[in-house]
Amino acid sequence: MSVRKLKPITPGQRFRVVNGFDAITTDKPEKSLLAPNKRSGGRNSQGKMTMRYLGGGHKRKYRIIDFKRDKAGIPATVASIEYDPNRTAFIALLNYQDGEKRYIIAQNGLQVGQNIVSGESVAPEIGNAMTLANIPLGTVISCLELRPGQGAVLARSAGAFAQLMARDGKYATVKLPSGETRMILVNCMATIGAVSNSDHQLLVSGKAGRSRWLGRRPRTRPVVMNPVDHPMGGGEGKSSGGHPRSRNGIPAKGYRTRSKKNPSSKYIIERRKK
Questions:
Q1: Is pLDDT at 1 greater than 80 in this prediction?
Q2: Which of 157, 150, 146 shows the shortest CA–CA distance to 182?
Q3: Stated pTM of the model
């Protein structure tokens, strides 16, 4: 994977850094795995704006992704690595031996023509999915379940990965991308390898219009609002705005909002770094 820095022939291209898309093998998605993706523009059923700074953007079709990897023991061949407009990671099209086709999140190093499989007693190779009980300690993993059969919810974005640290009884200790170390049941599934498109963090939009293409409208800074609109608004001239806080008055930048009564806190061994 690589990035390309464009020549500054226009103001919008002066600082722009785009993805090289070296890993992408096709620009035509599998039609049977596409679904409509209706946009709300931040409005509710009454047409009232309930989310600010959303709207517009290029029309997209949703790619149906297999997060559960529940076709155990049936080998599949990687047919293509594709771009997905709905996520930062690339996706891979799998052709199973029984004729079914499915999309999965592509792992770094996954190649077209490679055979991958999910199940209990499979080799811990890139792209294979297996339970935490069967993965060797120290292995880099991604697309991790939090509850058995739920489907992958952790370490799914571009370049993300977790690491299996230890196993004790029915729990495995996993270090997550945030730095948090927590216990997860050993019968939860995970995929071997880090998520693809790790260069995503190096990209530079170059112009405001590209945010509009992605469906993001201009964001107003709270300190330039009036007191009626935000706790940090008002004041004469360029006021600092006081302590950073949300529109509802909840402090930001370091204030912990996690409930002390959260029952899942007992599974967290070490909190993420501030």
A1: no
A2: 146
A3: 0.92
